[in-house]
Amino acid sequence: MTAIVQDDVDPKKRRFLILSTAAVGGVTGAAAAVPFVASMFPSVRALAAGAPVEFDLSKVEPGQLVTVEYRGAPHWIIRRTPEMVAQLAKNEALLADPDSKESAQPEFAKGPNRSSDKSGEWFVVKGVCTHLGCSPTFRKEIGPEDLGKDWPGGFFCPCHQSKFDMSGRVWKGMPAPKNLEITAYKIEGTKLTIDADLKGA
Q: What span, in angstroms and rounded, lies between the C-alpha atoms of 100 and 143?
């Protein structure tokens, strides 16, 4: 069988085909790269996650815990009863850092209440254990069988059994090294605003 050799190739047509193929390849490559480049920028939801969170406190009943999300972490809003607040001063012998000297919190959160509210009724805290980042459970009952007769009410981390009182202060000898963290916030009437960037909080 004899091969057919064609010597009369049109150089303009060849150049057109090469340029067309390169253009289609470039457009395809750019289209494939768009999702990867876009993933390097924060989404609208991610940007919104850093924005302050507002909550209407009038919805919370005495003794109730409500969870809101702020910057990807649960934050608890608790309306403590007068009995819960009265118990706080009695817990000091159980606690590793009763005055919260070693813990992350705004200046207003010093003292047994760890609250901007002088009455201690409102308590706002990041619901993440300071040991390995688990989320403790709210155990407001006093002296339950599984936690012992000395349990004054507070938070119990099921991951490694760390205990915290109703102000998020860690008990002595627990795996958690510090009290629960308090993010800066402000209360105006019945409006709570959680905002880590608050100045003078």
A: 24
- Annotated catalytic residue 75: no
Q: What is the pLDDT of residue 40?
A: 46
Phi/psi for 24 (5° steps) reads -65, -40
Would you state the pLDDT for residue 47?
46
CA-CA distance, 120 to 112, in Å (whole number)? 9
Average pLDDT score over the chain: 84
Interatomic CA distance for residues 158 and 174, integer angstroms: 12
Buried b (16+ CB within 10 A) or exposed e, 157-196: beeeebbbbbbbbbbeebebebbbbbbbbbbeeeebebbe
3-state SS string over the chain? Answer: CCCCCCCCCCHHHHHHHHHHHHHHHHHHHHHHHHHHHHCCCCCHHHHHHCCCEEEEHHHCCCCCEEEEEECCEEEEEEECCHHHHHHHHHHHHHECCCCCCCCCCCHHHCCCCCCCCCCCCEEEEECCCCCCCCCCEEECCCCCCCCCCCCCCEEECCCCCCEEECCCCEECCCCCCCCCCCCCEEEECCEEEECCCCCCC
Task: Name the catalytic one among 14, 160, 172, 191.
Answer: 160
